[in-house]
Amino acid sequence: SQECAARRRANVGLALIAVADPRGIPQLKRENPAKGKDEQIDVEPWVPEGDELITLTSGRLFHTDRAVVSLMLARLRILDRTQGQPKILIASNPGDGLPLLETFSRNTGRELENAGWKVVGRYGKTNLTAKELRDLLPEQDAFLWEGHYRTLIDTYEFPKWTEPLRPSVMFLQSCLALNVEEAALLFNRGAVSVVG
Description:
This protein is an alpha/beta fold. It contains 6 helices and 9 strands, in the order H-E-E-E-E-H-E-H-E-H-E-H-E-H-E. It is globular and about 40 Å long.
């Protein structure tokens, strides 16, 4: 629309939530700008091509059971009404091979503490076990994973976990982590949002 174009020119951020089956609005394959990695990456169809600035924040609401989409929206209201200090679990660099990422995670934790969050941080080679991670996760309002995808999936067996979650926001910051299979499992357990 003309309004969208005007906002883009003014660098005013826009937000879009797509409520549709991922096959209904499929992602596009684009050349990966990071040379030496995968040749192509999946992107949303509204992401501009080339070097144009991305000004449209987007998210998707979907589930194999359409009734769960309404439940996901209702969880947002519960999250908004949560009493007390918000809690976040940060698991960063558990394999101890990503020191720069760990530095960013530690600073993120400090800034969240400055903003009033109760932060449970597990950084670097802290002997974080799958059991500890699994036990801590249901108590959190947010979870930030910053590490290798295979560590989360193979070492911690994340997709096998079934414990109900609080209405919470899940940040999966690793290559390949944001996919339908893992996101659906988190939504089924109670997550409000999965970001990656």
